[in-house]
Write a structure and sequence with these properties.
The complex is a heterodimer of chains A (151) and B (241).
Chain A: H1 18-150
Chain B: E1 20-23, E2 26-29, H1 30-52, H2 61-80, H3 85-108, H4 128-150, H5 166-201, H6 207-237
Antiparallel strand pairs in B: 1-2
Helix pairs in contact in B: 1-2, 1-3, 2-3, 2-6, 3-6, 4-5, 4-6, 5-6
The chains are: A mainly alpha (151), B mainly alpha (241).
């Protein structure tokens, strides 16, 4: 009879009113911890999660905006560069044209003045030749007269 | 009394010795309630201190509490499922925290310094009444969870996937609380016994690694109990298709 008193008072498996009381105690502890721990901490953690999520979404939106602005700026820059290139080309072409025009003008002027000069020279020479010829004629006539008169 | 086979005569180790409190014809184990009240008090004061002034940028004890909360939420969510884990999180968390502080409190607090007229202070979970109470609460919870979520369709679970499973599932309803309570009780009691016996045999150095092993076991047992409780509830509320 003294061998196995596992279940009685003093035994290893001594069940008594401790069991239901402990169960009640744990249930009460559950409600207390729910009110003091799980609810308030859960609220704080979930608020923070919401805050982080919305902040992240906002940041993503902002990044997208910045990227859009950046690409816009890049496009504008590219356009401006192309416009500048075009202006430079136009200016070069203009100056080229101007140079060519000026050259042509100068050449034609030089040609015409040379032509004028030659014509002048020609006319003067003709005049001089004519004069010389008429003078020579006169002189010849004179000589002939004189020779005839001596006779 | 010569009828106490588990009262070891060495190392002041007294298994099966209790400090009885008598209320009418009800008897309770006083030492279990004394330690559990002290440990619950410590747990509650930690919670009160940590939640007194909570901020979005956590400081001090709030960090610890949030870590615990997160840990318990993950445990409940993975075992019970996204849909109803919120309802059961406080219960699972209380089981985990209560068993954890009981196990560690039993191992870390030098209860031996307090002399009792009979029995000795120790982990509340080293008393079979505590672990059976917890295990029965788990059983009630998973029945309640299944019935409240699925109504009478809960009993489809017993013939799922085939009616052959019926006897096994009925047996499971008994083995679940049995294994839950005896696993916890056995581990914690064995840990206390091993440490006590080693302290008696080799009072220096040698018990220390075993004590650390005991702390590890204690934490694991708390986790196992809470995880299994959550798993049983999850099994009960799971929808079969």
């Amino acid at each position: 009879m003294t061998s196995l008193l596992l279940f009685g008072a003093g035994g290893l498996f001594d069940f008594d009113a401790t069991l239901p009381l402990m169960a009640v105690q744990v249930v009460i502890l559950t409600f207390i911890l729910n009110a003091l721990f799980f609810k308030p901490v859960g609220r704080v953690v979930e608020e923070r999660e919401d805050y982080v999520n919305t902040s992240r979404a906002e940041a993503k939106k902002k990044i997208a905006e910045v990227e859009k602005l950046e690409s816009d700026l890049k496009n504008q820059l590219k356009e401006a560069r192309i416009a500048a290139q075009k202006v430079i080309l136009d200016a070069e072409e203009d100056s080229d044209n101007l140079y060519k025009e000026a050259l042509a003008l100068a050449t034609s002027e030089a040609n015409s003045s040379r032509e004028d000069a030659r014509r002048e020279i020609d006319s003067q020479r003709d005049k001089a030749l004519n004069q010389l010829k008429s003078e020579a004629d006169n002189l010849g006539d004179l000589i002939v007269e004189r020779l005839l008169a001596q006779k | 009394m010569g009828s106490m086979p588990f009262v070891f005569p060495f190392a002041e180790l007294e298994v099966g010795q209790h400090l009885y409190w008598q209320f009418g014809n009800l008897r309770i184990h006083g030492q279990v309630f004394m330690t559990s009240w002290l440990l619950i008090g410590a747990l509650l004061s930690l919670v009160v201190i940590g939640t007194k002034k909570m901020d979005r940028d956590p400081k001090g004890v709030q960090n610890l509490l949030e870590f615990l909360w997160d840990y318990i939420r993950d445990l409940a969510r993975t075992q019970i499922g996204e849909k109803v884990y919120r309802d059961w999180m406080p219960f699972i968390g209380t089981l985990f925290l209560f068993i954890f502080v009981s196990n560690w409190g039993g191992a870390l607090v030098p209860w031996k310094l307090i002399k009792l007229p009979s029995g000795e202070l120790g982990a509340p979970t080293a008393d079979i009444n505590t672990t059976v109470a917890l295990a029965l609460l788990v059983s009630l919870s998973y029945f309640y969870a299944g019935l409240s979520n699925k109504g009478l369709r809960y009993f489809e679970y017993y013939v799922h996937p085939t009616p052959i499973m019926l006897p096994f599932k009925i047996v499971e309803d008994f083995t679940k609380p049995l294994s839950l309570s005896f696993r916890l009780f056995g581990n914690i009691l064995a840990d206390e016994l091993v440490v006590a016996v080693l302290v008696f045999l080799v009072p220096l150095v040698l018990p220390v690694p075993v004590m650390f092993l005991g702390l590890f076991t204690s934490a694991i047992q708390a986790l196992i109990f809470a995880t299994l409780a959550a798993y049983y509830i999850g099994e009960a509320v799971e929808e079969h298709h």
